[in-house]
Amino acid sequence: MVACAYQAVKRLRTNLALARLLDEHSSLEYAGTKVVVIVGNVTIIVSMVCDFIATAAMWYFLDAKGVTKTRGTIMSIRLLVLNRGLLLLAAQITFLVLWLVGETHWYWLPFHMNIPNIYTNTMLLLFVSKSHSSLSNVLLMSIVSDVRLNERSSIRAKEKAKEMLSLQLTSGGQQLQFNIAWINLELSAYSSSSFSIAVALMSKAKHEKVFPPLESDPQLFTLLLQKLGASSALHFEDVLSLDDPDLLALIQGHIVAFVLISSSKEGHDDTLQLEESQRIASMSEADKITGEGVMWVKQTIHNACGFYALLHAVCNIPSARSHIAPGSVLDAVLNARSVEERKKILETSKALDDAYIPIALQGQTAVSEDWVWEPPFHYVCFVDVHGRVWELNGARMGPVDRGGGREVVDVVRECIKEKGGTHSLLALVETVA
Question: For residues 375 and 314, what is the distance between their CA atoms, to the nearest angstrom?
């Protein structure tokens, strides 16, 4: 029976691996992939059912050998549970149904944990919502079989499993929050084995997409700007001083926007939305400029405040469309009709991922492999739109009107004094041939 189950699981893993490759690299996602997955699942389900029937029948007919039907049934169930058959079958059927109705991406992640004096075999099933914009519907099931473990070893096994689950769930730039609840089934009446189930219900991801932070290097900003579709007539430069005309004169071209890099934790402060609500509530009707004509995007990509500042700068200059290539990421954002549409474009854009991540990783600051790191700085854009200066910060609830009839450089100077701390400044520069 064990050999049969092993072969069935092996066949299933092969089929699922093939299906996953088809799902990722083939245009036949809903044709060839489904056939392979269905065949693989039906194979394992039929194999398990036959195995269960044979096992139950064996114990039932042992009644003739002096084993009561009740004891035979109990021993049969115990044997099935110890081999994780019933749970795997239930999980397999659930997986197949969810996959067929198109509600989940699927991951079958088997792994083994070798801990001194014990051997723990773990099977991990991860069901993730197919929605690209939300990871709130996630169910994690981990089945852990601990054989002849003392209490100390069992605790160590659980800690190791939890660590490995965390590694699996934070891989690929995804930062997810979850809680693991352990349910122990002790079968000491029939065996020295114990059986543990770890079930984790994922809460909504704090940030559905995570990027490595972008350093305040004008060369990296310019490279990213052009990779996203801007022409070479736009570039970023360091601003060494706002008060020294000679230093400002070193900038070659016309400054069309500023990006302020501040040591403020404003971009990561959980009270920012409350402060924003209070600020808006205290404004008079005359002060509530709606920001019509201003392109603003709410930041939903973790650690990407530099990118959002770049986006706000280039998309709000008067000559934006003349510098942006049709069909590019920047063009798609400019043509979006709402803030929600812009958010979805950025959250699902593979072109953005391919452009941003390699450039951000060229920076000199080391970051963790899963990019879950809160940088001690934040980027904010300042730009003139139709004669009014706007502060554009993706961490806020909307664009902030800094008034009309003023120079952008004066507003930036005021904000530096207000924020305090250390700061640096980049300028988006337009050159005219």
Answer: 23
- What confidence tens digit (pLDDT) does each residue in 292-326 have? 679 999 988 888 999 999 999 999 999 999 999 99
Q: What is the pTM of this model?
A: 0.53
Q: How open is the CA angle 165-147-71, to the nearest 5 degrees?
A: 125
Question: What DSSP letter does each residue of 37-76 carry, written as one string?
Answer: HHHHHHHHHHHHHHHHHHHHHHHHHGGGGT--HHHHHHHH
Q: Nearest Cα to 383, choosing from 323, 322, 318?
A: 318
Count how many Cα atoms sit within 13 Å of the Cα of residue 56 in the half-sphere of its side chain: 10
For residue 431, the Cα-to-chain-centroid distance in whole angstroms is 38
Exposure string over 193-220, b if 16+ CB within 10 A, otherwise e: bbbbbbebebeebebbbbbbbbbbbbeb
C-alpha–C-alpha distance, residues 250 and 258, integer Å: 16
174 SS3 class: coil
In 235-363, which ranges are continuous DSSP H helix?
Answer: 245-248, 272-282, 305-315, 320-323, 329-335, 339-348, 350-360
Gap between the Cα atoms of 187 and 184, Å rounded = 10
